[in-house]
Amino acid sequence: MPIQQPSNQIKLTNVSIVRLKKGGKRFEIACYKNKVQEWRNGVETSLDDVLQISNVFMNVSKGEVAKSNDLQKAFGTSTVDDVVKEILKKGEVQVAEKERDHDLASLRKEIATIVAEKCVDPATQRPYPVGMIEKAMAEAGVSVKAGKNAKSQVAETLRLIQGHSTLPIQRARMRIRIVLPAAEGERLQEQLRALAETVEKEDKGESWETVMLIEPSQIRTINELLQKECKGKGRVETLTFAATADNN
User: Fold this and answer.
1) Rounded Cα gap, residues 66 and 31, in angstroms
2) What's the pLDDT score for residue 201?
3) What is the rounded distance in angstroms from the CA atom of residue 205 to the CA atom of residue 22?
4) Taking a C-beta distance cutoff of 8 angstroms, is the pair 122, 168 a contact?
5) What is the C-alpha to C-alpha distance for residues 246 and 226, in angstroms, rounded to an integer?
6) Closest to 100 in 3D by CA, of 134, 150, 144, 131
7) CA–CA gap between residue 12 and residue 4 (Å, rounded)
8) What global pTM score does this model have?
9) According to DSSP H, which parts of 76-146 are helical?
10) Residue 246: which pLDDT band, with cuts at 50, 70 and 90?
């Protein structure tokens, strides 16, 4: 069945163009925005819901449809659905400069917001406004990566701010309470103290109880220690995430 050439007058809206260079030629497909990522994540499985036009193009904006023999040479098949799937999997989403700038600005703001939620001024133990975090990111030369989500870029952003900006900052501490049977507490207290940044309270009686500030990353180590050593006889409670409760 011959591929019909669409009119060059067709104007696509809400479009994402996915491009793949193969066999010395450029191949493009016209997709609905957001659907490309949903396809790649396995959320969307219907090509009809992903594609605005069920065809492969040499140039979407000019309406230049790829010839069957070009598809065959580059992809080893002229079946449009098979070619489309490969382009969806391996192709690069084309983003207009204005849209790319907007997306990067939004991503930068999202990263700054997460850093502000998770970090504090070491002197006051209070969080910074998002705007101050953004200024520190600029000072530290933080370059956000469009292909990665905000959460995955927080650790590197914090490292750069700490090393290359004038803003004093540290991860917010968790305040936790640990309650153990007296014998278990006596046996494990030194190991637990070593995992704390500050021990705020410690009571010994029928049970052993402590309140401490820890780096958030230590909570997993503490839980694993208690699970291994106490076999479910103790408990850990998170009282506050940031060490700000006494300063409000």
Assistant:
1) 16
2) 92
3) 73
4) yes
5) 28
6) 144
7) 17
8) 0.56
9) 80-90, 97-118, 130-139
10) very low
The pLDDT value recorded for residue 11 is 58
C-alpha 21/C-alpha 23 separation (Å) is: 7
| d(C-alpha 161, C-alpha 147), whole Å | 21
SS3 for 127? coil
Cβ–Cβ contacts within 10 Å for residue 16, how many?
20
Of 92 and 100, more confident: 92
Whether the CB-CB separation of 247 and 220 falls below 8 Å is answered with no
Distance CA 51, CA 206 (A): 67
Packing angle of the helix pair 218-230, 182-195 (nearest 10 deg) = 160
SS3 29: strand
**CA triple 48-54-58, angle to 5 deg:** 145
pLDDT in tens, 165-201: 999 999 888 899 999 999 999 999 999 999 998 899 9
pLDDT at 233 (0 to 100): 85
Task: Say which amino acid occupies 13.
Answer: T
The percentage of residues in the chain with a pLDDT greater than 70, rounded to a whole number, is 91
CA angle, residues 93, 99, 102, in degrees to nearest 5 = 125
At a CB cut-off of 8 Å and minimum separation 6, what does 42 contact? none
Q: Which H helix or E strand runs over 183?
A: helix 182-195
Helices 130-139 & 97-118 angle (0-180, nearest 10): 110
